[in-house]
Amino acid sequence: MDAIILQILNGLDKGSAYALIALGLTLIFGTLGVVNFAHGALFMIGAFCAVTLSRILNFSFETIDPTKTDFLGNPAKIKTTYVEHWFGADFGATIIDWAVPLAILFSIPIMILFGFIVERGLIKHFYKRPHADQILVTYGLAIVLQEIIKAFYGANPIPTPAPDVFKGSFDFGTLLGFEPNAIIYPYWRLVYFAFSALIISGVFAFLRFTTFGMVVRAGMADRETVGLLGLNIDKRFTFMFGLAAAVAGVAGVMYAPINSPNYHMGMDFLVLSFVVVVVGGMGSLPGAVLAGFLLGILESFASMNEVKSLIPGIDQIIIYVVAIIILLTRPRGLMGRKGVMED
């Protein structure tokens, strides 16, 4: 039982990342009708926003401390970060320690602006083009962004630690009546799951309970009718592209301590997230979230040694096997709508 609970927690952790990226993908497809293969790159850029802010906060200058000497007997040179110099040693150190959560505020305007630029400068020219053209151009954009990140940050993963207060693990077993240390789970992964649930709930609440969101949902269902009512649905859809970019960005920011950012992490998540979108149903936001968590849990159970000993390599293909089964039995996915990508 403890192994099962641990795998469910692992699955919710993976599913959180899948669901957030798939949610952004579905927002873009549902509003603009664009199959965006550059969405994984937005996740990657978000992760590197955390790396960038961490480096900015660690900018330092050297001062000479006459009370100390180095091994040659010369006055010692002390490095002091500008943040500690401006805000004091204790508060400055706290700011540096909380670089990843602070990077959320840093990344949101960057990702929204980047989303606007990509949509206005590139994507809008492919609205009425075949989906194959959209895939090719957005995949090419993803490769360009990946190579830019590689050129500036290098090819090696960059460790980006979580705040000290969230380091270590939580003993789940004691809460559920198990022996101590039976179910140990990292604090930050629990934070990531809670953060994902908050973002997903916020997006659904925005679409359901705000006038802006209601117009967007109406436009997703019947764009022409909404336009005939005199509403500028195109501007709203452009904003939704920026919102989808921001969702992918903050997902990447918070994932940085879990998986050290590297230039190919966007591609690693992109294919899996598209499988999630297809399984959930193209254009279905609830389907994307449901499929994200479902496939995350299945992948987690497939990675157990007991399962891999019976079916070697099943952890590498389980998501695709499930996708094939679901699409053979439900061609529109779990919650797909009639007519979406059927023309």
UniProtKB/TrEMBL annotation:
<feature type="transmembrane region" description="Helical">
    <location>
        <begin position="236"/>
        <end position="257"/>
    </location>
</feature>
<feature type="transmembrane region" description="Helical">
    <location>
        <begin position="16"/>
        <end position="35"/>
    </location>
</feature>
<feature type="transmembrane region" description="Helical">
    <location>
        <begin position="98"/>
        <end position="118"/>
    </location>
</feature>
<feature type="transmembrane region" description="Helical">
    <location>
        <begin position="42"/>
        <end position="61"/>
    </location>
</feature>
<keyword id="KW-1133">Transmembrane helix</keyword>
<comment type="similarity">
    <text>Belongs to the binding-protein-dependent transport system permease family. LivHM subfamily.</text>
</comment>
<feature type="transmembrane region" description="Helical">
    <location>
        <begin position="269"/>
        <end position="298"/>
    </location>
</feature>
<dbReference type="GO" id="GO:0005886">
    <property type="term" value="C:plasma membrane"/>
</dbReference>
<dbReference type="InterPro" id="IPR001851">
    <property type="entry name" value="ABC_transp_permease"/>
</dbReference>
<feature type="transmembrane region" description="Helical">
    <location>
        <begin position="190"/>
        <end position="216"/>
    </location>
</feature>
<dbReference type="Pfam" id="PF02653">
    <property type="entry name" value="BPD_transp_2"/>
</dbReference>
<dbReference type="GO" id="GO:0022857">
    <property type="term" value="F:transmembrane transporter activity"/>
</dbReference>
<feature type="transmembrane region" description="Helical">
    <location>
        <begin position="310"/>
        <end position="328"/>
    </location>
</feature>
<keyword id="KW-0813">Transport</keyword>
<dbReference type="InterPro" id="IPR052157">
    <property type="entry name" value="BCAA_transport_permease"/>
</dbReference>
<keyword id="KW-0472">Membrane</keyword>
<dbReference type="GO" id="GO:0006865">
    <property type="term" value="P:amino acid transport"/>
</dbReference>
<keyword id="KW-0812">Transmembrane</keyword>
<keyword id="KW-0029">Amino-acid transport</keyword>
<keyword id="KW-1003">Cell membrane</keyword>
<protein>
    <submittedName>
        <fullName>Branched-chain amino acid ABC transporter permease</fullName>
    </submittedName>
</protein>
